[in-house]
Amino acid sequence: MKRYEDSSWQDRMAISFDFNNMMADFVGQEGFKWEEIESLEPVLKRAGQAMVDKRKAGEMAWRELPYNQAQVVQDIIETADQIKDKFDNFVALGIGGSALGPIAVQQALNHMFYNELPKEKRGGRPRFYVVDNIDPERMEGLFDIIDLEKTLFNVITKSGSTSETMSQLLIVVDLLKSKLGDKFSDHIIATTDRQKGNLIKIAKEEGFKTYYIPDGVGGRFSELSPVGLLSAAVCGIDIEEMLTGAAYMDKKVSQSNPYKNPAYMAATLQFLAMKAGKNISVMMPYADSLKYMADWYAQLWAESLGKRYDLQGNEVFVGQTPVKALGVTDQHSQVQLYTEGPFDKVVTFLGVGEYRGKVAIPKGYEDIPAVAFLSGHCLNELIHAEQVATEYALLKANRLSRTITLPQVNAFTVGQLLYFMEVETAFAGELLNINAFDQPGVEEGKNATYALLGRPGYEDKKAELDSRPKKNEKYIIR
Ligand code: PA5
Predict the structure, then answer these.
(1) Which of 4, 76, 199, 342 is deepest in the core (most CB within 10 A)?
(2) How far apart are CA 310 and CA 332, in angstroms?
(3) Is the dihedral of CA 381, 384, 386, 392 positive or negative?
(4) Do the strands 89-93 and 151-157 form a parallel or antiparallel pair, or are they unpaired?
C-alpha cells in the first residue's frame, strides 16, 4: 500500500488554516468580528451556489483534475521513465500559468540543488530548467549549458499562440533541425489545447508527442493537468500522491458550510479585508521549498481577481495586490513595513511542521553568552521561532495575518495547498462578483505585441498603437 492510500496518514498530513490573527478578539479593531462574517450569509450562500452550479456546468473543469486523468497519468509516468534513459536535460518552455506551477512544484518537492546533483543522486533523472522569459541573454545562456542531443523540450501553451512561447519554439526547432535533422521531433513534447491554437497544428504536422490541457482549465488553474504533471513526473515526483492530496482537499473545500470550509473562510476574510481597504496580500512562506509557491499564488490571485468589470458589466476596479516575501529572509527587509507602515495588508504565512532536514547548531564561543545561547538548538527550531516571533510582532502591531501549515512538504500536502488556493481564488471571485477565469488585461498586452511585430489580422491594433501620444522629451532625463 502506498502511504497516501492510508487514511490515517492522510489525516496526519492535513494542512491547516489558522485565521485567529484576522479576528478582532486578537488584533483589535483592525480585525473582523464573527458577527461580520455571519452577516455575509446571503452573499456566502449565493457564492457557494455559484461554485456548485459552475462546477456542474463544467465551467470549473480544473476541479475534476484529481479524478479524471487516470489514463493520462499512466502515460506520463511511462513517458517520464523513458525520458530518464534518453535525456540529460528537460527544458520547459512556457510562461505565466504554463511555467509558474512547474517551477513551484519542482522547488517544493525536489532537492534544493537538484540540477547540481550528480545524475545518480537525481535517480538517473534529467536536469530541469524552465525558461519562462524571453530575455535573449538567458536563452543564449541556456544553449551554453545544454547538449541539444541530450535535451528534451516541453513546449507548453494553452492558447497555442503566445508570442514568447512560440518564439522559443521557433528557436529550438531551428537549432534542433540543424543539429539532428529529421530526428528533431523526438526532442519536443507539446502541451496545449486539443483543438485551438497554432501549437496543436504544428505538433500534428511535425509528429510531436502531445499532451492536452482539458477544456475549461485555464493557464493559472492548470498545474494539476499535464502542464505540471509531466515535468514533475520527469523529475521523480509522485504525481499520483499529489493528485490524491488535491482530491483530499477537494472534500474539505466542497462543503457548503463556509464555517467548515477552509477555502471559503479564507476567501471570505480576504473579501472583508479588501472591503476594509486592505488591498495588499503578502504571501510569506517560512521554507525555501515553498518560496515559489508565493510566485504561483501571486499570478493566481492577481490575474484572477484584478478586474475592471463585475459580472453585470459595472466598473468595479477590484483586486488585491499580491506580494511575495520569504521567511526569514524578508524579516530583515519587508517586515519593517508590515509592522509599522500603512494598515493595508494581509500577511499569509506558510509554515511547515516538520522540515525534511535537521541541522544542529553546534557548541562554540561559550564565553560569549549572546552567541552561545544558540548552541544546542537547531535551525529547525530557529526558523520556527522566527515565524512565531514575526506573527507575534504583527499581532502586537494590530496587523492582520493568517497561517497555513503543512505538516510536511510532500506531494500530498503540496497537492492540497494548490487545490486550496485555487478554490479560495475562485470563491473570492464569486464574492467579488467578477469573472475569475478571464484575463482581458493580459490579452490586451498580447494583442499589442502581435500588432507591433506584424502578425496578420492585427493591422487595426497596429494603427491604434501608432496613434498613441508621442513621448514628450521634457519628461525624459538622460
Ligand atoms: O493564466 C493565464 O491564463 C495566463 O497567465 C497564461 O497562462 C499565460 O498568458 C500563458 O498563456 P498560454 O498558456 O496560452 O501560452
Answers:
(1) 199
(2) 39
(3) negative
(4) parallel
Given the residues 177, 209, 384, 446, select the one marked as catalytic: 446
Question: pLDDT by residue (tens digit) across 142-189?
Answer: 999 999 999 999 999 999 989 999 999 999 999 999 999 999 999 999
For the chain, give the longest Cα–Cα distance: 76
Mean pLDDT per 10-residue section of the chain, whose length is 478 residues? 97 98 97 97 97 96 98 98 96 97 98 97 97 96 97 97 95 97 97 96 98 96 98 98 98 96 98 98 98 98 98 98 97 95 98 97 95 96 97 97 98 98 98 96 88 92 93 95
Delimit the domains of the chain by residue range: 3-39+242-432, 63-237
- Residue 442 Cβ inside 6 Å of ligand 1? The answer reads yes
Q: Do residues 357 and 316 make contact, with C-beta atoms less than 8 angstroms apart?
A: no
- Please check whether the domain covering 3-39+242-432 is classified as CATH 3.40.50.10490: yes
pTM above 0.85, yes or no: yes
Q: Cα–Cα distance between 462 and 346 in angstroms, integer?
A: 41
For ligand 1, the distance from its centroid to the CA atom of residue 296, given in whole angstroms, is 12
Grid coordinates representing 89 are 536535460
* Ligand 1 atom nearest residue 439's Cα: 3
Q: Is the CB of 220 under 6 A from ligand 1?
A: yes
Q: Is 446 a catalytic residue?
A: yes
Between helix 163-180 and helix 440-452 the angle, nearest 10°, is: 50
Residue 384: active-site member: no
Whether 63-237 and 3-39+242-432 are alike in CATH topology: the answer is: yes
The string of DSSP letters for 50-106 reads: HHHHHHHTTTTGGGGTTTS-HHHHHHHHHHHHHHHHH-SEEEEE--GGGTHHHHHHH
CB 346 within 8 A of CB 27: no
- Ligand 1 in reach of 157 Cβ (< 6 A): yes
* Residue 218, C-alpha cell as written in the block: 485555464
As assigned by CATH, the class of the 63-237 domain is alpha beta
Strand, coil or helix: what is 48?
helix
215: cell is: 477544456
- How far are the Cα atoms of 4, 61, 217, 236 from residue 64, in angstroms, in the given order? 19, 6, 10, 24
332 carries an active-site annotation: yes
Is there a contact between 221 and 66 (Cβ–Cβ < 8 Å)? no
Averaged pLDDT of the chain: 97
